[in-house]
Amino acid sequence: MSTELWYSERWEEGRSAISLKVLEVLHREQSPYQTIEIFRTESFGTLMTLDGLVMVTDRDNFVYHEMMSHPALFSHPDPKRVLIIGGGDCGTLREVLKHPGVRHVDMVELDERVTRVAEQFFPELCEANGDPRAHFHFQDGIQWVADAPAGSYDVIIIDSTDPVGPAAGLFSAQFYGNCLRALGERGVVVGQSESPLFHAELIRSVRARLREAGASDVATLHFPQCTYPSGWWSATLGGKGVKLEEFRHADAAAKSFATRYYNAALHRGALAMPEFLRD
Ligand code: SAM
């Protein structure tokens, strides 16, 4: 009998799973909102799961965090005020703070325990948490956006869990309407929008709801994410008074900070739609 321990996230509808060989269970707790688990895996380093779903691994989180942040920030002419909804592991926050023009970031995460556990097990993702521009608020992002003064942000990043439970409202037309109201005259909202291969219908509805909420332009980026279902992920952007295809290409090409995945050419390439998605 095998004594090997494997972590498997099953996607029942697609009759498929992603599995990682586990060397050790490092942490397990039930927060007021979800089960947080940390594993040491053989090939992907440390793994965080929430309610049994993969959130972050050491090895491949850079692709997701860079694509959730830099395309939106380079789509805005001069982003200074940024709101992150969710994103408790702090990887997106770290990327946003690499932009020297950013003056203020509100990170609104429902579950403080996700951030505290990330500080312990993913210290590199949390290395910018002490930056004086970063402001943490542990509360519901839906309420935060509903209460936000009109025109108070340049960029809003929705780094959420899947559209179930407390994150379901982060995919609604009403929430997007509040995001667009909270954006300045020119603004960008971006949300993770699941797998192009498995969740094309969700991407279609996110795009339609953003338009319904008043976005003047909508674009979907796609990128590899090998530990998420299907290994292929997406982020959908809504522009308010900005054309998303016309991002600041020259600034992105001359960016003053290091990335491991994002660059100007990839940004342009990620906006190109495969034929089946265009349909
Ligand atoms: N990279 C991840 C993914 O796509 O699988 C998402 C990362 S991040 C850890 C997601 C965070 O969203 C979680 O920490 C969760 O607590 C938070 N979240 C879910 N619903 C929320 C809400 N309504 N307001 C604020 N944060 C929320």
Tell me what you see in this structure.
The strands form two sheets. Strands 8-7-6-9-10-12-11 form a seven-stranded mixed sheet, with helices on both faces. The chain has a five-stranded antiparallel sheet with strand order 1-2-3-4-5. It has two domains: 53 residues, Spermidine synthase, tetramerisation domain (Spermidine Synthase, Chain: A, domain 2, Roll); 218 residues, Vaccinia Virus protein VP39 (Rossmann fold, 3-Layer(aba) Sandwich). The model has no long low-confidence stretch (mean pLDDT 96). It has 279 residues and is of the alpha/beta class. A hairpin with a 2-residue loop joins strand 4 and strand 5.
- The CATH topology label of the largest domain is Rossmann fold
- Shape, per Cα inertia axes: globular
Bound molecules: S-adenosylmethionine
Number of domains: 2
Describe the main β-sheet briefly.
Answer: 7 strands, mixed
Q: What is the oligomeric state here? A: single chain
- CATH architecture grouping of the largest domain: 3-Layer(aba) Sandwich
SS content category: alpha/beta
Strand content: 25-35%
Number of helices: 9
Look at the structure and give the CATH class of the largest domain.
Alpha Beta
Name the CATH superfamily classification of the largest domain. Answer: Vaccinia Virus protein VP39
Q: How are helices and strands ordered from N to C?
A: EEEEEHEHEHEHEHEHEEHHH
Spatial gap, N to C terminus: 48 Å
Main sheet: strand order? 8-7-6-9-10-12-11
